[in-house]
Known about the structure:
35% of the residues lie in helices and 20% in strands.
Amino acid sequence: MSDTPPDNSYRPDQVEAKWRARWAERGTNSPDLDHPTRPFYNLMMFPYPSAEGLHVGNMFAFTGSDVYGRFKRLQGYTVFEPMGYDAFGIHSENYALKVGKHPAQLIPENIANFRRQLERVGGMFDWRHVLSTTDPEYYKWTQWIFLQLLKAGKAYKKKAAVNWCPLDKTVLANEQVIDGRCERCGTAVEQRFLEQWFFRITEYCERLLANLDNLDWSETTKTAQRNWLGRSEGAEIVFEVMGGQAVRRSEEVAGGSIAQPPNRPAASITVFTTRPDTLFGATFMVLAPEHPMVAALTTAAQKPEVEAYVRAAAAQDLVSRKVGEREKTGVFTGGYATNPITGKQVPVWIADYVLMEYGTGAIMAVPAHDERDFAFARKYALPIVRVLGPAGEGRSDSSALTEAIAETSEMVLVSSGRFDGMTADAAKRAITQQLAGEGRGKAVVQFRLHDWCISRQRYWGPPIPVIYCDGCGAVPVPEKDLPVLLPAIEDFRPDDSGISPLARHEEWYYVPCPTCGKRARRETDVSDTFLDSAWYYLRYPSTEFHDRPFDKARTRTWCPVTTYIGGNEHAVLHLLYSRFLAMVLKDLGHIDFEEPFTRFRAHGLIVKDGSKMSKSKGNVVVPDEYIAQWGADTFRMYLMFLGPLQVGGDFRDAGINGPRRFLDRVWLMVAEAEDSGGELRKELVTRWHATRKKVAEDLEGLHYNTAIAALMELVNAIKEEGCRDRALIQDLVVMLAPFAPHFAEECWERLGHTTTVFDAGWPAWDEALVVSDEIEVPVQVNGKTRSRVMVARGATEKAVLAAALADEITRRFVGDKPPKKVIYVPNRLLNIVVG
RNA sequence: GCUCGGGUGGCGAAACUGGCAGACGCAUGGGACUUAAAAUCCCAAGAGGAGCAAUCCUCAUGUGGGUUCGAUCCCCACCCCGAGCACCA
């Protein structure tokens, strides 16, 4: 302890501070964006700057992406690797409320801390192009994007349900609803319908789905998007209805409209189904409680019960309404509809298991072949008719069914008139066709995806740039008046008044109408955080332009993003919204690509003691202490060596001294390196070239753990030889640079270089030298490895067999009998099969 | 329930997607250096067994079957863990 370490020992704190300063001073990480040699846009998902700072999971993700960016730089690309802060949103607002501070004060503090951590870990960030979504310079253009969509008819306003706490008199986000109650006061949450802004993302469903096939993205992410889009093919089928008493079939076909005076209600209900083949089994109908036809259908006798049910459904919050596996409930309206293919009268019910947002908000119920309908029919004693069964089987007694019958490939239609005997697929087409011919149905494609609601009845976000005028209606804020600044109000917390916080701020709320100049009111909703993050990649290359969101030339040079690495928790929303927005911007002529991220890879999660790190679980690991104790480079190597980037793993600090020992060894080698002049042993040369190749390939595939292992093997080989060859050691330093950038820079300088190691170029390998010409081939007898023989690379089967049979051990197992069969995989394996 | 991952030594993991299972590292044991410890260096090591020995044998990739000369990898059935979605008609 009292010993002073020798001058040349590896001192990470000093080395890292030195190179952080150098990089900043020399602008090493800020490429010339206007004159790149081969542009490479290396993007990682920008963080939300929480008060706790970056945890080990963030560091894992950012380092993983940074290693890749540094590797690309070594390969000769001009790498642009920016970083920013996703600082608007409910997280920040809630935290600010909790600690009783203003988010406008908290966020800059948090950002400063994030910046310190990000620099400390050695990311290759171009700090000249940093951004924060809360900066008016940024959200000015978020608002501008809203206006472009509004102008193009891609944004519209409609009433939509929100969670409403009747005590706090405020809107709650879904995550603030716990077991149907307000997380703050515990009051039961109900639904309210508010006018909100939407983006027409559903117009882009087919395109969003089709493009996925050609994207170089993690398969898991693509699958998640496909499921979220939820395309299904089916049919819309029109049922004619009558209220309480039978009426003549109306000629009216259009869905949902009332064709007759209210005293003789005759109209139709359109349902969506993916199973038109089961139409003969549709024995009742169910409408969502909110369906516009409910009132017209309900008979006087049923009215009290129906109205009570509708009210109860509305009183539920949005979260618990959608929780599955609940006991089915419903009420008979008293009305009947006509099954368009059987002509039979079927009762019309309402139930909250039918959702107004999907399909047409009405279903035909086929209890024999749908679990939900089956449960409902059982509970309310509704008829069950089986229409799919084994070929040749006649009318089967369906009332005895104990569960819904799932379709299997052997089943055909039964009890379905002229369609009997058809396969389900054939019947889908045939029945849809017949209905279409009669004007009572058509084939349609449905998506699960809904339009994107961007309104938030909150404070901490970009105000939606619209002004309401009594004379002119909703008027977009003129572009020259952007940004609509978020006023710095102290009373940003929701209160009992029932109006959103911005509306209370009168100087801000009342403005002259841009069209007529009369007193008008601002929109008081702010936009969704996902809108901020849906276009940030476009802003990075253009942060120094104040008169445009993204410069045309810059965007053409740098976009779309070459490689994007981020968490799979954003597999759906963030990535889908970004794709949608790029399509819109392309269609409007602002950009010339429609897929923003050419290559996307999802990194794994770092967990602690088996569960995701979160403050509530108290298992957040702060990286700062580790970095202080071991150095950023050791910490980076440790994280990357833990396991594959795309898998993640459990954080244990047990092995962190391994990478450190490794760096210490390399440090010594660098100190002792000399021009050896002499020939290196052949095996070492092979190892050298093989390592150049393997590490490059592993880096490209993000298999960092095996790349590091290969470097360790090379070091072990060099040590075993006692080799001091400068050229070899120099190469080692270059290959280490993506993982341990400060360390590599220092070694590089000590090896006599004056420029950054990242301009050194990736060492090229000679394919002929990657493999040795003498190889060891395992010899199996009856599939079990018994021996090995040394042969020349490319030796023939005959030669290898002869060598094997000359081997004493092999002969013992083969015996004197001639081999029954010989399998030879060139250069890999010989298997001798004996009787 | 559905979708997608995953299950390999004491631990983190590897294995060219059918070809020597356990590379690399951690922890461990032994040795060297040291007054001692730390650090460093060298050696050992999947489990079980035979042998004085060098060595040799058997069993092993969640479980049970199958295909194959050969299976961690492919097929069938099942168990467990993780993530996401969840009444989507």
